[in-house]
């Protein structure tokens, strides 16, 4: 039985499997190494553990010094409701956790030097990306008036007459219900349902200073329960940056979709999706597919694997 999705207040946390999540983070330009060699291999099974890749992140362009924190983790305004508190997943007995991070709801994330692989057959990076392109073409042919497409487009580009009291309808906030809608629509339109019951998300904890100014979002993964097989993922969204009123809601939409691409590749390809800082050729291909679907007026800039915050400033 698959694990439930965690997103809003009405959803339960992922069922504990005895392992913490292992992070792949969304960084800015200075911290992403996109020159990592990415050899192509035949599709293989992974019965043995191989080396655990370095964490990757989607961060902010023109990263400030680590001591500089332009955004405080606790804003007086709370434009987005936080999920209800969840109990953290239990750790295996005797497990050392030298680098432990927790989200606002208590999920634990740590770096681990050992790559953990599922026993299922995984896809190559380019195969996973091609499946997104093929599925989108089939989906649009079979569903010319798709409700999922209408919902996602209306969230990305809200109609002005629905928000006459606002000068900029694209600036109104997104709550967790809207994130649920984005997830459900993107899962059907682009990912052929592969994310179902394998993706959870949460806001960053105030003690995680890297989310104050450097990291916009991260995606962690862990091996799913034995009866489920494969991988499950956890998205952590920067509360200080993504809830800051100086940025358009498009920044949250872009970040969330960016992390959903990571989730898809982790689920399909396993830990190898961490190569190239997580932004593999397949990642870039999928980002281009979604950008093309959104259109030029969408302003999500998914092809850019770095977050240029100036592009998302309200009134900018």
Automatic annotation (TrEMBL):
Annotated stretches, region: Disordered: 32-51, 67-115
UniProt-listed Pfam families: SprT-like (PF10263)
InterPro entries in the record: SprT-like_domain
Biased composition (Pro residues): 82-95
SprT-like domain ranges (all copies): 179-294
Domain of life of the source: Eukaryota
GO biological process, any: response to stress
Protein name: SprT-like domain-containing protein
Organism expressing this protein natively: Parathielavia appendiculata
């Amino acid at each position: 039985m698959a694990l439930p999705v965690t997103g809003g207040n009405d959803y339960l946390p992922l069922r504990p499997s005895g392992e913490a999540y292992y992070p792949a983070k969304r960084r800015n330009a200075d911290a992403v190494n996109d020159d990592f060699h990415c050899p192509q291999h035949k599709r293989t099974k992974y019965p043995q553990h191989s080396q655990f890749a370095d964490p990757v992140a989607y961060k902010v362009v023109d990263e400030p010094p680590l001591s500089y924190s332009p955004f405080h983790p606790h804003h007086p305004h709370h434009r987005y409701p936080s999920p209800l508190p969840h109990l953290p997943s239990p750790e295996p007995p005797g497990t050392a956790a030298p680098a432990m991070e927790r989200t606002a709801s208590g999920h634990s994330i740590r770096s681990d030097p050992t790559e953990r692989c599922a026993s299922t057959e995984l896809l190559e990076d380019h195969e996973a990306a091609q499946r997104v392109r093929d599925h989108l073409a089939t989906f649009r042919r079979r569903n010319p008036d798709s409700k999922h497409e209408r919902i996602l487009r209306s969230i990305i580009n809200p109609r002005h007459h629905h928000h006459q009291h606002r000068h900029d309808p694209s600036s109104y906030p997104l709550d967790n219900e809207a994130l649920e809608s984005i997830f459900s629509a993107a899962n059907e339109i682009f990912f052929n349902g592969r994310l179902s019951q394998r993706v959870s998300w949460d806001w960053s904890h105030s003690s995680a200073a890297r989310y104050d100014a450097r990291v916009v979002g991260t995606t962690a993964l862990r091996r799913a329960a034995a009866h489920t097989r494969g991988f499950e993922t956890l998205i952590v969204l920067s509360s200080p940056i993504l809830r800051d009123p100086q940025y358009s809601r498009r920044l949250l939409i872009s970040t969330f979709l960016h992390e959903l691409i990571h989730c898809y590749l982790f689920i399909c390809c396993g830990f190898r999706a961490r190569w190239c800082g997580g932004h593999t050729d397949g990642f870039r291909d999928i980002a281009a597919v979604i950008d093309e679907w959104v259109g030029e007026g969408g302003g999500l800039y998914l092809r850019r694997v770095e977050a240029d915050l100036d592009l998302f400033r309200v009134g900018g």
